[in-house]
Structure to design on (352 residues):
């Protein structure tokens, strides 16, 4: 009975990790069954906990106990964050998706270590070393692979009205929100995949860009005016092809022509939102800076990225204007970033 339950839990766990290829309902059902199964597993093995602190502790036992505690903490975090994402309770404002993903990575690593420790009882020598190497490779794969799958295979479906709802700030002066993104500069096919890695999300049938969503969040907080930078040329719908076009722009120094420029002289504060391209400022955004008279102006940068942070983009910005404290947002976190953006925008209240 115990072995069958353990095998079933192991299968459920790894099927659950394939959430990007499952419907939300199936993933949710698997999660519930898994948590119930973990509870049953602990009930059946309750004698283990009676002796948890008894006897001596060698290195293997210490690692095993620590792994069990960590795994339990990660599973609880998975359950709570999963329930919050499924709206089973009124959750405090937090990036529950990032928490859920982090707990999935942590529990996977802990599980691999736990399996390896138990395997050491039955396998020795070269087989054990091979198993250790396999566990190491799988753990590294979980650490880097799960975020990759989340970025490139998870469809980002949002409720824009819900995201934009919230507290506002009263900031002195006129605010201009300038953004550059793929939406508005690309002819996308009707069935394009809206994934965070490609800077896309969808609300019903409407395609929304990552930078566009951030611009609208900023506007919902500040009431500023939005200006979308649009290039005369269009970028490829395929993201990998777009990156190659961007690479050629950096290599040649080309500044893609813009259809128009905003009247920056009419504004007191300029918030610039852009994705990190090749660890730098996209050339269309640089052309905006070059084409406007920014004398005496301060740029407030918000950068979206897939793990590169600000890259070298701030150095490029400083060539054209003074910049304030910047904000970077991971692409998969944009739909839950209103509180982060709100707190950052508070810094504009007392700025000149």
């Amino acid at each position: 009975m115990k072995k069958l339950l353990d095998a079933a839990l192991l299968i459920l766990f790894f099927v659950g990790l394939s959430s990007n290829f499952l419907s939300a309902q199936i993933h949710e059902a698997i999660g519930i069954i898994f948590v119930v199964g973990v509870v049953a597993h602990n009930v059946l093995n309750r004698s283990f906990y009676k002796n948890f602190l008894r006897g001596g502790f060698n290195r293997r036992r210490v690692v095993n106990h620590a792994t069990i505690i960590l795994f339990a903490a990660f599973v609880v975090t998975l359950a709570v964050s999963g329930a919050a994402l499924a709206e089973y309770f009124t959750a405090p404002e937090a990036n529950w998706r990032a928490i859920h993903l982090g707990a999935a990575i942590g529990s996977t690593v802990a599980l691999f270590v736990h399996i390896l420790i138990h395997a050491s009882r039955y396998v020795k020598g070269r087989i054990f070393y091979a198993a250790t190497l396999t566990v190491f490779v799988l753990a590294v794969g979980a650490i880097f692979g799960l975020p990759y799958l989340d970025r490139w295979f998870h469809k980002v479906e949002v409720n824009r009205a819900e995201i934009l709802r919230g507290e506002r700030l009263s900031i002195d002066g006129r605010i201009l929100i300038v953004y550059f993104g793929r939406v508005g500069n690309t002819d996308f096919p009707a069935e394009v995949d809206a994934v965070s890695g490609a800077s896309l999300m969808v609300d019903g049938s409407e395609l929304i860009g990552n930078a566009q969503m951030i611009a609208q969040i900023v506007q919902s907080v500040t009431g500023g005016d939005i200006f979308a930078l649009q290039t005369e040329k269009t970028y490829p719908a395929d993201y990998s092809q777009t990156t190659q076009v961007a690479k050629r722009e950096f290599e040649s120094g080309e500044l893609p022509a813009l259809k128009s420029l905003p009247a920056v002289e009419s504004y007191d504060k300029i918030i610039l939102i852009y994705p990190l391209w090749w660890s730098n400022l996209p050339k269309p955004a640089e052309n905006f800076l070059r084409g406007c008279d920014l004398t005496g102006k301060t740029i407030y940068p918000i950068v979206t990225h897939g793990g590169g942070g600000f890259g070298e983009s701030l150095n490029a910005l400083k060539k054209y204007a003074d910049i304030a404290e910047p904000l970077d947002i991971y692409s998969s976190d944009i739909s839950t970033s209103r509180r982060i953006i709100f707190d950052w925008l508070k810094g504009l209240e007392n700025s000149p």
Notes: The mean pLDDT is 88. Residues 290 and 320 are 7 Å apart (CA to CA).
